[in-house]
Amino acid sequence: MRFTLPAASLIALVAEAVANTEKVIFTAPSAITIPNIRPGLDDLNLDTLSPAGLRTLETSLAVQFPSDTAPRGVQSWYLLKDLEPGRRYEVRVCWPATQPTDFWLDVHNLTHVFETPLLISSLADYSENRQPIDLQGPGRAQGEATSHSVLLLHIHSAADYFTSNRTLMEHPPAVDVDLILDPFLLNILPQSLGPTALYITVLAVGSFFLSGAIYTWLYQIAEIPKPHTD
Ligand SMILES: *[C@@H]1O[C@H](CO)[C@@H](O)[C@H](O)[C@H]1NC(C)=O
Ligand SMILES: *[C@@H]1O[C@H](CO)[C@@H](O)[C@H](O)[C@H]1NC(C)=O
User: Where exactly are the transmembrane stretches of this chain (predicted)?
Assistant: First the structure.
């Protein structure tokens, strides 16, 4: 187990190298009370990422080539829920290098979205186009109002290549992406980088002692008279 950890980190590093990554770093806002009335946040039908729940979402994002009306292509929205207020997080989007795409990631609090006409209309459009999976969720109790730290993730995705194929220019295929919510350790380091950082630290400390040992060994082999006298 101890030996597979560095290997896993290296594989993760290599995997990141052949894929592209775009990210946004933010601090979770304080919890707000969301009244349990309908329609509520759940009725937006957004895919949700949360530290205790789903942290990696494998999905495909629609893209468009940039146009005058949509210079950043297609917009999509996700809910970031049950965050820990005051903690730093990172959301990454990773996509294969074989599908050149530009991504823009933004996080907004609810108030800001609901008070900004461009954002709320974009969110409404996106939400409307998503098919409700289950119109009447089983037993949605009209419970108490709950308190959550939530943010909305707003993604723009635009195709970033050129093809002479008209069909392809008008309907570029969706891009396979991983959306990853990563809490920071001690607000300094993304948690998923923890093993890598640990490995590098162990390596650095280890090589310090190792070089000391090698030095002593060489010293003995060379039989250089020790500087101190008996
Ligand atoms: C919401 O976001 C806006 C714009 O980023 C900011 O000015 C405001 O203070 C935020 N409100 C809360 C409650 O965090
Ligand atoms: C254009 O791309 C589409 C989709 O990949 C393909 O089906 C079609 O054959 C291509 N057309 C030409 C002229 O290459």
Answer: 197-218
